[in-house]
Amino acid sequence: MDGTYTMKNVPANFIAGEWRTEPETMPAVNPANGQTIAQLPKSSRATADKAVAAAKAAGAAWADTPVFKRAEICVAIGAAIDAAREKIARILSAEQGKVLAEAMGEVGKAADGFRLASELVKQMGGQTLPAEDPTKLVMTIRQPRGVYGVITPWNFPVNIPVEYLAPGIATGNTIVWVPAPSTSLVACALMEAIDSAGLPAGVINLVIGEGATAGDAVVVHKDVAAIGFTGSAATGKVIAQRGAGKPLLLELGGNGPVVVFEDADLDAAAAAAAGGAFFNAGQVCAATGRVLAHHSIADSLSEKLVAHAAKHVLGDPFHQGTTMGPLNNAKVAAKVKEHVDDAVAQGAKVLYGGNARPDLGSGLYFEPTVISGVTREMRLNREETFGPVVPIIVFKDEAEALDLALDSEYGLSVGVFTADITRGVSMAKAIPAGIVNVNAGSTWWEIHLPFGGGTGTKSGIGRLGGIHTMEAMTELKMITVTMNHKLGAA
Question: Is 0.85 topped by the overall pTM?
Answer without folding.
Answer: yes
